[in-house]
Amino acid sequence: MSRAVGYVRVSTEEQAQHGYSLEAQAEAIRNYCKALGWELVRIYRDEGYSASSLDRPDLQQLIQDIPLHSFDTVVFWKLDRLTRSAKDTIYLLEDVFEKNNITYVSIQEPFVNTKDPTAKMFTTIISAFAQHEREMITERMRMGKYQKARMGQFPGGHVLYGYSKNPVTGEFEVNEEEARIVKLIYHWYVYGDESGQPLGMETIADKLTQMGILPPSAVRGVRVGVRGKRGQKGEVIKHWSNATVRQILTHQAYIGKNFFGRDGKNAEPEYTKDDWIPIPFPQLIDDHLYQLAQERRKRAKFWQRTHEMPLLVGIIHCGICGLQFRGAYDHGTKPVYSCYGRLKRYHRDGSPMCGSPRLPANLLDEQVTQKVLEALREPAKMKEAIEAHLESWERRKRELELLVGPSTRQVKQLQDELGNLNYLFRKGRIPVGEYEKEASALEKQIADLREQHKHQSEELRRLQKLEQDLDFIRRALEKGYWQVGYQAIQQEVQMTWDAAATIDAATGQLVNTKPRQEKKIQVDFSQAVEGGDARDELFNLAMHGSGKVMLRQLFDRLHITVHVYHDRVEVRGLVPVGNINISSFRRYRGFRLYRGWRTRCP
Question: Pick from 470, 445, 301: which is nearest to 385 by CA?
Fold first, then answer.
């Protein structure tokens, strides 16, 4: 008897409610399997996802479940439920299903397959028509919005904060309560609050949150769900963010200037400037105040990406709260490392800020580099550490290989039990309450085992990368790469320039001539010295220019990570490195230690 799974999809909530719904598709799949005597193991459901992409949770789960061999057939209502892309159709049917000996069935299109040449041609044609239909729907929606905008009507989307839409005329009107907040934001940013000092975006966001004023997303009922997809339930964010304040301070609609068809500066332009359609908005902010806000925003010192990225970004962590440290600039000039947990925007929910120290980047980079290079000078200790890691790696690898196989078999066994339970329920041999309880328990066990299998597989991949790095270090130790020094030498080089002539292309006249030249120059070279010590040369190179890239690659090979605590900085890796006392940074005037950490930090 065939073991089948179903796949159902709708792209919008409206289609789910009023079109051929998920449940209607699922019922058709159940009836089809029942008529053929197939066991229906599971139905995968994607609600609120477009067929233009394969990046859908349950479709990806279906693909991941194929190696478990818990089913041999995939059933769907129509091919366009699976995908509306011709390229994706061939990929799924040939590279995913057929390569794994999975049969597939389209209930409404029984001829769909890629094994028979004629059927493959029809399948390709159907998928091409489905893709064409999707593109036509997109184009009709785009043109509909464009036509609405040309008629002066609202083209769709969320109404901008500070305005409301007249349900009769479709025009934008001022929402007095929200408009008061918009004006307050501009006034605080340009002129300041009762203190007389202009406020920054983060301070404004904090102040509005403390006043209990809901942000635009909460007012409009926008829920933040899984990847923001339609149909996904999520959380309504009730605190203001820097990004929301910045959007209000930069949106030209508040001075009565807004256009349909104008995309963000990073977006692919869909319309040329000549096609932009002005959308009338009542002006909330006068031009002078808006201009002052833009001038202040330009003057503000933000960390520009033209700054050199500090060496340890991405491998430095907070030992107190567990978050990463970020690279920042103190007063726009001095690079520092600071925990993300110190930022206000991560604590608008009332959670305490992290009390980890704020450290000078250049000084910490130097000290960590010195520690690592000192460790490289002790090959005996390094070899001992590498051997210990290899032994631990082999032991863990064998353990994971023993765990992955049984977990796969356990999932298959539980899916068999769930299939039997579904069969008994359909035959009426088990009451609804008992079925729901047992099915829920089995589904939870399957989900837990899948999650466990996922983590074990990821750890196996990490161990494979670790094996490569351990092998690199072992070979470097055997060949003495880190015991070679370099000395500067000079060598005389003779340079020759051939004679040259320049002809005017218009007149054909000789314009300029250069005679043959020869010149001897002295060029500096670096020469390796056997048995030397590369520590100082590596350090000097690493602290300047492209040497930082080389050093970071070495850190990654050695799996170097840095962990900051109140009293120390721990440097960890595949080789023994050591700690740095936090007191060594206190002489630096940019050093910051949060005073309230003893009572407010976990």
Answer: 470
Of 24, 34, 118, 128, the C-alpha closest to 79 is 128
Residues 325-366 pLDDT 10s: 988 877 666 888 989 888 766 666 667 788 888 888 888 998
Helices (H), 427-534: 432-479
At residue 491, φ and ψ (nearest 5 deg) are -140, 140
What is the H or E stretch that residue 169 is in? Answer: none
Q: How far is CA 103 from CA 31, 43, 84, 337, in A?
A: 18, 16, 20, 55
Residue 589 pLDDT level (bands cut at 50, 70, 90): low
Give the list of residues 6+ apart from residue 537 with CB closer than 8 angstroms, or none: 485, 486
Q: What is the pTM of this model?
A: 0.45
What is the pLDDT, as a whole number, of residue 20? 65
Q: What is the DSSP letter of 161?
A: T
Please choose, from the candidates 504, 498, 500, the residue with its C-alpha nearest in 3D space to the C-alpha of residue 514. 500
Closest-CA residue to 474 (of 414, 541, 387): 387
Q: Is 11 a catalytic residue?
A: yes
Least confident of 29-38, 39-48, 307-316, 509-518: 509-518
In CATH, the number for domain 3-147 is: 3.40.50.1390
Q: Number of helices (H) and strands (E), helices first, in the chain?
A: 17, 19
Query: Is the per-residue pLDDT at 303 higher than 90?
Result: no
CA angle 210, 211, 216 (to 5 degrees): 95
Distance between CA atoms of residues 38 and 215, nearest Å: 52
Catalytic residue among 2, 11, 70, 407: 11
- Between CA 403 and CA 56, with CA 45 as vertex, the angle to 5 degrees is 75
Q: Residue 579 pairs with which residues in a beta bridge?
A: 570
- The strand pair at 334-339 and 325-330 is best described as antiparallel
Tell me the C-alpha to C-alpha distance, in Å, between residue 311 and each of 87, 237, 548, 552.
42, 35, 7, 7
pLDDT at 18: 45
- Tell me yes or no: is domain 163-299 CATH 3.90.1750.20: yes
Do 241 and 205 meet the contact criterion of CB atoms below 8 Å apart?
Answer: yes
Encoded tokens for 273:
């400037």
How long, in residues, is the chain?
Answer: 602
Burial class of residue 87 (count of CB atoms within 10 Å of its CB; 0-12, 13-18, 19+) = exposed
Task: Check if the beta carbon of residue 39 is closer than 8 Å to that of residue 3.
Answer: yes
Domain boundaries, given as residue ranges, for the chain: 3-147, 163-299, 316-377+549-600, 379-482
